[in-house]
């Protein structure tokens, strides 16, 4: 067994899916077609913190096709050494990996150019052409206002030829509201087919989000209780213990609803609430996600609480400062840094069950989780008030876990009951397993051509339809924003 194959197996011990695709990709080094991965915006924050480190981990673990080359493109006049220096602190290189690291940077190049210059993209294309006939991936690590010129140039000048493919990865934000999204959608769809576009919502690459499907559809016990008859409410939360860290001006353009709720939390809602797809095929899953989103009416501002953090008196560092203390944030900003919203899914399974989405910055901890709260036990025979509702919790991060709150008898002669947990904490159960980073899984998906973990255009349409009226009310009507102290 080759080193590459054993690495694939160790990463994908639970993912025959990947072995299957990668088996094809790695069929034979001689006959394998070359691949090029182009990062547009290679000088930027996402590139150094996520893209280069992820490419390195995939390369280091032998998960990429043998003849894969990497090209960074941005306006800044940089050398590859500069990109390397920026990314290195995030690459977590271990002792003994030095030789591999050199090999990785040997297949990396950087070229500078403008995003709307055909001549510059022609130079990029010439560089790619030197690799020979190859499959091409373009990652747009760029501010959204550059998407249009950059994608136009890719289409005009840089598409692969013959029977090799071209795929384009786009990062959120996919617009600011339904109108701007539709403009972006119409532009992109004139250039590329849906199969060529990979819209990243990195929550879909998280281990627990993927596991959710297996737990829901791979266990017969859940389906009969997965409905309005047994479930009282579903709470989906995202909490961050940090503020905007000097990037408040940038955050102020979006706010927590656009940043987290409209995408990450709504994606989780759709996976929790969807019907069982006919198969694990990407289109079957995405069809079901869209079907459930179509049943969600626009969020009513009456069902929403908005907050903005203030500094904590006497605290050190960032916690001492409120959102409005950031000099890059307008002093009268009503941009929410916290939001809680109740959504409903008007279908036979969920009618009347509140889906409570909550997300915020500058809170007391870092956590993302889904809580399924069951109804009270009917005809309770125990002491009144003793029996608590069952709750099934999926902790997405940190420390992935699934646990079920159940009632049990306290051991001993007395007949007392108390709440306890059936606990599946993954680091205990799978002590030596490697949990791939979400970006690792997603970038590998692009190589393998799996769109299961990417957002389809009609999903985005529904997401914007659900949130645009609320966002417009916030932008135009300046609703009451509840102040909360940093760390609450
Ligand atoms: N940073 C993150 O952690 C993160 C997380 C999730 C999503 N995203 C999304 O990923 C994309 C890239 O994010 P980022 O944080 O890496 O952005 P960034 O650092 O602000 O920008 C990336 C690169 O784009 C170029 N650029 C910036 N402003 C430009 C302008 N006005 N005109 C032309 N070029 C410009 C710059 O390169 P040159 O000047 O050298 O051309 C810059 O290095 C964005 O869509 C962002 O919303 C980022």
Automatic annotation (TrEMBL):
<comment type="pathway">
    <text>Carbohydrate degradation; pentose phosphate pathway; D-ribulose 5-phosphate from D-glucose 6-phosphate (oxidative stage): step 1/3.</text>
</comment>
<feature type="domain" description="Glucose-6-phosphate dehydrogenase C-terminal">
    <location>
        <begin position="213"/>
        <end position="487"/>
    </location>
</feature>
<dbReference type="GO" id="GO:0050661">
    <property type="term" value="F:NADP binding"/>
</dbReference>
<keyword id="KW-0560">Oxidoreductase</keyword>
<keyword id="KW-0313">Glucose metabolism</keyword>
<dbReference type="InterPro" id="IPR036291">
    <property type="entry name" value="NAD(P)-bd_dom_sf"/>
</dbReference>
<dbReference type="Pfam" id="PF00479">
    <property type="entry name" value="G6PD_N"/>
</dbReference>
<dbReference type="Pfam" id="PF02781">
    <property type="entry name" value="G6PD_C"/>
</dbReference>
<keyword id="KW-0119">Carbohydrate metabolism</keyword>
<dbReference type="GO" id="GO:0005829">
    <property type="term" value="C:cytosol"/>
</dbReference>
<dbReference type="InterPro" id="IPR022675">
    <property type="entry name" value="G6P_DH_C"/>
</dbReference>
<keyword id="KW-0521">NADP</keyword>
<dbReference type="InterPro" id="IPR001282">
    <property type="entry name" value="G6P_DH"/>
</dbReference>
<dbReference type="InterPro" id="IPR019796">
    <property type="entry name" value="G6P_DH_AS"/>
</dbReference>
<protein>
    <recommendedName>
        <fullName>Glucose-6-phosphate 1-dehydrogenase</fullName>
        <ecNumber>1.1.1.49</ecNumber>
    </recommendedName>
</protein>
<dbReference type="GO" id="GO:0004345">
    <property type="term" value="F:glucose-6-phosphate dehydrogenase activity"/>
</dbReference>
<comment type="similarity">
    <text>Belongs to the glucose-6-phosphate dehydrogenase family.</text>
</comment>
<feature type="domain" description="Glucose-6-phosphate dehydrogenase NAD-binding">
    <location>
        <begin position="38"/>
        <end position="211"/>
    </location>
</feature>
<dbReference type="GO" id="GO:0009051">
    <property type="term" value="P:pentose-phosphate shunt, oxidative branch"/>
</dbReference>
<comment type="function">
    <text>Catalyzes the rate-limiting step of the oxidative pentose-phosphate pathway, which represents a route for the dissimilation of carbohydrates besides glycolysis.</text>
</comment>
<dbReference type="InterPro" id="IPR022674">
    <property type="entry name" value="G6P_DH_NAD-bd"/>
</dbReference>
<dbReference type="GO" id="GO:0006006">
    <property type="term" value="P:glucose metabolic process"/>
</dbReference>
